[in-house]
């Protein structure tokens, strides 16, 4: 089972293409520009204009993640348009990149 899972992840890393047309674009209502601060296995930690930090999960981009794939999509310092859902429990804000996200 683990071998099959590893093969599926390798296949996704080689073949995944990000569909830019489904992502928020700069200037879309209700969005902000976040800067990639760190890449982790499950997504991106981002610095937001209001000084807060948020997590953009890889599932938001339509992939299962992994450092090699996520590094290919965006680099530390890249700007990504996101919708921010503030979390007031001390945790990182939730971020959404796809137009059809809730």
UniProtKB/TrEMBL annotation:
InterPro entries: NA-bd_OB-fold, S1_domain
Coiled coil (residue ranges): none
Domain S1 motif: 29-99
A molecular function GO annotation: nucleic acid binding
Name under which the protein is recorded: S1 motif domain-containing protein
Organism listed in the record: Ceratopteris richardii
């Amino acid at each position: 089972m683990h071998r099959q899972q590893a093969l599926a992840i390798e296949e996704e890393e080689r073949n995944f293409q990000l569909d830019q047309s489904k992502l928020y674009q700069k200037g879309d209502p209700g969005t902000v520009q976040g800067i990639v601060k760190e890449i982790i296995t499950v997504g991106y930690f981002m610095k937001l204009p209001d000084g807060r930090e948020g997590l953009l999960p890889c599932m938001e981009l339509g992939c299962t993640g992994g450092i090699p794939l996520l590094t290919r999509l965006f680099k530390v310092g890249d700007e990504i348009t996101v919708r921010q859902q503030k979390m007031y429990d001390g945790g990182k804000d939730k971020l959404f990149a796809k137009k059809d996200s809730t």
